Amino acid sequence: MAYGKQWQTVMEDGTVVTRSNTWSPPGSHPVGYGVKVVTKDGELVRIEGDDDNPITTGRVNAMNLALREYTYAPSRIIHPMKRNPEDRGKDKWVQTTWDEALDTICDKVRYFQNTYGPESIVVFGGTGREACIFYYALTFSVLQSPNCCYTQSGWSCYGPRCSISDYVLGAGYPELDYAGHLPGSYQDPRYTVPKWIVVWGKEPLPSNGDGFFGHCLVDLMKLGTKIISIDPRITWVGAHDGNINLQVRPQTDTALALAIMNLMFETGEYDQEFAEKWIYGLDDMKARAAEYPVDKVAEITGVDAEDIKRVAHIIGTERPIGWAWGLAFDQNKNGVQLSQAFIVLAALAGSIDRPGGLTLGPPSALLGKWRMEQRGAMADDVWQKRIGAAAWPGLSTGMATTQPDETLNTMETDQPYALKMGWFNSSNFLTPTCSAQPKRWHKALQKLEFVVVQDLTMTPTAMAVGDYFLPMATWAEHNGIVLTHYGRNTVFMGPMNKALQVGECKSDVEICLMFGQRLNPSWWPWYKPADGKSLDLDALAVAVEDFYSDQLKELGMDWNQFREEGLYQPGAHGFEYEKYEKGLLRFDGEPGFNTITGQIEAYSILYESWGEDPLPYYEEPNYSPISKPDFAGQYPLITTSGSRRYSSFHSEHRHVPSLRQIDPWPWVQINPETAAEYGITDGDWCEVYNMFGEARFKAEVTPVMKPGILNCAHGWWFPEQDGEEPNLFGVWKSNFNSLVPHFNVGKLGFGAPYKGVMCNVRRVRSLDQD
Ligand SMILES: Nc1nc2c(c(=O)[nH]1)N[C@H]1C(S)=C(S)[C@@H](COP(=O)(O)OP(=O)(O)OC[C@H]3O[C@@H](n4cnc5c(=O)[nH]c(N)nc54)[C@H](O)[C@@H]3O)O[C@H]1N2
Ligand SMILES: Nc1nc2c(c(=O)[nH]1)N[C@H]1C(S)=C(S)[C@@H](COP(=O)(O)OP(=O)(O)OC[C@H]3O[C@@H](n4cnc5c(=O)[nH]c(N)nc54)[C@H](O)[C@@H]3O)O[C@H]1N2
Ligand SMILES: [Mo]
């Protein structure tokens, strides 16, 4: 069977095979594994990797392989539910109908809009899932509120990297060139295999972060690529022969970047032609980098000076150099400077939009562009009321959301106005996912008068504050489009084809289509229920296809043509490298980058206009034994957190038996020497604590950690435990984010220290006993 063309086949044994591309739910970023969904009599039998997909070639992650368990999990909610507000925290949910839920919720929305203004409604959204496209639309053009909130302190995921790319590079997210956009893959004549890839603060094999197919690192290593891993831990890729590990002290990466840059300037080992032509502020940058001599930086970062020199020499002289930059850039108060320095380093290495280096995309396309256009549904005076927008222009220019920390302050103080209604879409932030200081959020959320939750299973967040629960469909249960980087850099795009229906679950786009048709029909024209019907499933199915056909118009195809095509790769449709030379990046069609100066801004005009230093600099983290010497005795260790595992996506999958078996308990990784010093042996329960809070984990004693540095799991709760208040499925027991301060962010409003706070650790008897 050729790839695409036939997207659904009935087999001789009566099973139906539907080709598809994965997104979420279950949780994952838009990595788009090509898969075959095998169903029989409308029931999911299994997921298989699709060998014909040229990028993923049959590979698929554990969470999708467990989709059958996830789909039919006893705790999955498959009908709309409601609960009296006075019963929040109690398991007193009752089933309701979509008709009733639509009627009541729309009445409530109109009430809050008319009584307090649409800005009194706030939508809370989580990460990277398909829902990310639709919760912006839900907020702006369905509910018509300016307040869309991603609650992670300092917006510390992806948003900073994207905004900095817009501000200093003038292009969408620069992604490692792994030939995903080229139909010929690694063999495509346009492609060059990178000599080295710098994998920096990212662990793409388990994470596949932001739509990057992490397994390509294995492919490339087989083709001869070597890896420079910049990570406090030795990761799987770092551990391979010939690869280099810079085991940096958490949160000191910006000093390291500046030292590498300084060495390159000193030796002249960099792409001078590119730098002279395309870097704005090159001389200022050289002067700033000179403030970071290698010996001083070796001391700050804990990385050997000779290793830093070796890496600077490789980056300066080997070609091509590929780059993968990850979450550690965002979860850092100094991360804005790190991202800026990273972009300059990649430019000095001649990697920008060149084969085997980094690819660039236009600022936004397709669904990504559409979701931003939804802002137009609000009058200007409403948009101006977006929480934190005026105080944090450095954040609110790049991001269409509220400033997260400011949102908690608003909920606590009712200033500048009170928030009355909440809508959780793909967010379970009381678990140690998005929020820092989750108990403060928990308390503040209780003030909301009406709360809707859109999710798949009963979560601690839904149990604590939900009044209505709308049940969601998995990717195998609805039609859709997966596109990497939400259109900011579309390496490829694939159709998700509906293969089955479970209960009355609906997808995020269907929720928008249904509520949009009622609340703002001029913006939501697609769904046309037959006269007298409020829920018309046939009309809804047509609406989804029409919506996607409209989206695909700019590519010259409709939904049916796209699903037959099976995969869209820009390389088959006129993709070009070095777009800055060809006038393909700027809105005015001139050569150059889409920044104010038309160049890559090592000296950022925008940073300067927002009161930030225009050049990158290093700043010691606020909560380290060095910056807080008075607390160094009490909290002598540093903990990072959140490195991903194959078997869960944040707080998701803790209830899926086969995945829980792989990773049964929250863990803290400790170096053997440090463990011995604290009387801890492998498998012991420990409490990690600091001046902000405490959380419990099982010790994993391992030499991948350096002495004095810990690494804790995030996203833990215990679905098997009592879900009612105050236990809430044990959500406070292993909640790493209790240790993370509120509002410890950079000057632009970005970056918080989820990946580096000072702490101490002690052995305890169990999760519950001292
Ligand atoms: N299976 C699975 N996949 C996921 C997720 C999940 O929960 N589970 N979450 C998704 C989400 S939302 C995201 S944002 C991505 C994130 O995925 P990635 O960008 O890969 O980030 P992490 O896995 O959090 O951390 C990457 C590495 O950073 C290292 N690190 C920690 N502190 C520092 C530091 O200060 N400096 C440096 N240089 N490195 C540091 C860690 O040791 C880790 O190896 O993953 C996505 N994919
Ligand atoms: N300490 C520490 N904390 C961290 C991190 C860290 O590294 N360290 N990482 C942070 C990062 S990068 C992020 S992005 C956040 C993630 O934070 P969140 O995105 O809030 O992650 P979850 O808690 O998994 O919540 C997502 C919820 O959405 C539901 N869901 C899944 N798919 C869909 C869908 O398609 N539609 C809808 N409507 N619902 C869906 C899931 O069942 C789940 O309940 O966590 C952050 N928290
Ligand atoms: Mo994230």
UniProtKB/TrEMBL annotation:
Domain 4Fe-4S Mo/W bis-MGD-type: 19-75
PROSITE patterns: 4FE4S_MOW_BIS_MGD
Domain of life (superkingdom): Bacteria
Keywords: Iron, Iron-sulfur, Metal-binding
Iron among keywords: yes
Single annotated GO MF: iron-sulfur cluster binding
PANTHER family per UniProt: OXIDOREDUCTASE YYAE-RELATED, TRIMETHYLAMINE-N-OXIDE REDUCTASE
Family: Belongs to the prokaryotic molybdopterin-containing oxidoreductase family.
Protein name according to UniProt: Dehydrogenase
Organism: Gordonibacter pamelaeae
